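Appendix B. One record, verbatim.
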Amino acid sequence: MGLNEHTPVQTPSTEPSRSTEFTTFMRAYQDMVFSTAARMAGDDAQAEDISQEVFIKAYENFAHLRSSPTAGGWLKTVTTNLTLNHLTRYRKRWRLFSEMKPSAADEDASEPELPVPDTLLADLNAEQQRALIDDTLRRLPAHQRIPLVLYHFEELSYQEIASRLHVSLAKVKTDISRARAALLPMLQSSGEP
């Protein structure tokens, strides 16, 4: 540094640092955020994860939120939206068996209709359900697993799947139907104590 260059002098600040201020802000709203997420998700572990996401977003927007009179409303809206996104994302997994009845377009399907218990995975928490379904999906042959995952988790239509996999529409429908039929007994046997 040259003699004529200005050297910044750090003086202790009398106002709280951003970190301290955010911590105070977070503590003021953490119960509301957590309880909103827990009521909607029905699972405390999921609510904790969602709450963390909410406060990450709040930290990113803290410059606007720190003095906003509507910060609580903003947090509640973000919590609600993130929880709904979370539930929608994982709800698709439980749709696997609710669609086992052939639709009007699939009436010609030769697969028998299987009884599907509504409480198949009810005794497991969401994390256990996800782990069980992921493990069970891995045991399916690729030609069944891939179209099933593309349909239920990536939300592609039968036609889009057929196009991507370069197979016929009938093969996609058959593979998905057979994958569901194979998954059900695997999940039932895995879910038993």
